[in-house]
Amino acid sequence: MSYITLNTDKLKHNYLFLNQLFSRHHTEWAVVTKLLCGHEAFLKSLLSIVGKDACDSRLSNLKKIKKISPATRTIYIKPPAKRLAESIVKYADVSFNSELATIKALSGEARKQGKTHRIVIMIEMGELREGIPADSLMDFYGEVIQFPCIEVIGIGTNLNCLNGILPDRQKLTDLVSYKKCTEQRFGQPIPYISAGSSVTIPLLMNGNVPAGINHFRIGETLFFGTDVFSDAVIPEMCQDVFRLTGEVIEIYEKPMVPSGKAGTNLMGESPEFSEEDMDKTSFRAIVDIGILDIDVKQIFPLSDGIEILGASSDMMILNITDDRNLCKVGDEIDFGMNYMAVLRAMNSDYIDKVLVDDKKESFISEL
């Protein structure tokens, strides 16, 4: 049986660290929950710790959050599809937007539901993902405020997710200027500039975030304790909130180089082998995790003397050097994971999800 664990004590530690950081800088922040893929037990645990706004890019996840915690403010953090307008208004208190036609649809649905739907206007700042051109903000805002049942509560931007464009003081200063100019022209306050994500945290720590940037959306750093800007870690935070565990289902001493005519494997690859390994053997262990569940390039064994050799759809092959006693059939082997590895594992119905704490007490939650 393979499973992924979430350590609630370490998650709480990371939350408290970040909450103190943002409090010192008088900045609000919301938790990005999409990594949990709507898993109800994990969401309940997270929401019991953070008690904050929840951001997600999947409507089904926001629906579950509203079921668990109706008072939590939910934020849909990508431009909505027009066809989802009814559900967006129903389950998302706030949505990020960049298209007038969609905002018009949200306005109509908000009127039907007797609600005011709040939006953040996303602005393109060099990443070339979502966002209106900055020079069209005034015209765009002027159109948006004509829609009934729509309230603009902020402007925002996205960086680093597609092309890796990093935030800097100039980009953030420009956003502050856009907000001030819009407020002056239309005489309406815009409460938030949602311009910070995990990649912006190091700038905040170094005093390079200008006054006026007052809202962050945080996922990766909360769950992994990472300094995304420098591709490093924040020493005061925990990097092992998540762990992957697989069970050994076979161990044999086998040749290090396969025999027979080789084609491509199921990934379309043609593995290469060193001639130095010809006629050599090693102990190879198989664990019950495959590429259907995980990208083997995004995980790493937590025990010395173990090397990942590759994987097929349902099994992963390990080299346990020349020491068969490192493990035996039925033993469990633990792996560390990065963000994308956790996202893929959480999205697999074939990996159990387990909550643990530092007392090593655990329970296996529903698939």
Look at the helices and sheets and give the structural class.
alpha/beta
Uncertain regions spanning at least 5 consecutive residues? 361-367
Largest sheet: 9 strands, mixed
CATH class of the largest domain: Alpha Beta
User: In CATH, what is the homologous superfamily of the largest domain?
Assistant: Alanine racemase
- Count of individual domains: 2
What string, H for helix and E for strand, traces the elements in order? EHEHEHEHEHEHEHEHEHEEEEEEEEHEE
Shape: elongated
Radius of gyration (CA) equals 24 Å
Secondary structure: number of strands: 19
How many helices does DSSP assign?
10
Helix share, percent: 25-40%
**How confident overall, as mean pLDDT?**
93
Under CATH, the topology of the largest domain can be stated as TIM Barrel
N-to-C CA distance = 12 Å
CATH architecture verdict of the largest domain: Alpha-Beta Barrel
Strand residue content? 25-35%
Secondary structure topology:
Layout: E1 3-7, H1 8-24, E2 28-32, H2 40-50, E3 54-56, H3 59-68, E4 74-76, H4 85-91, E5 94-97, H5 100-113, E6 117-122, H6 137-144, E7 150-156, H7 169-186, E8 192-196, H8 201-205, E9 215-218, H9 220-224, E10 226-227, E11 232-233, E12 242-255, E13 281-287, E14 299-301, E15 307-311, E16 316-319, E17 332-337, H10 339-346, E18 352-356, E19 362-364
Parallel strand pairs: 1-18, 2-3, 2-9, 3-4, 4-5, 5-6, 6-7, 7-8, 8-9
Antiparallel strand pairs: 1-12, 10-11, 12-13, 12-17, 13-16, 14-17, 15-16, 18-19
Helix pairs in contact: 1-2, 4-5, 6-7
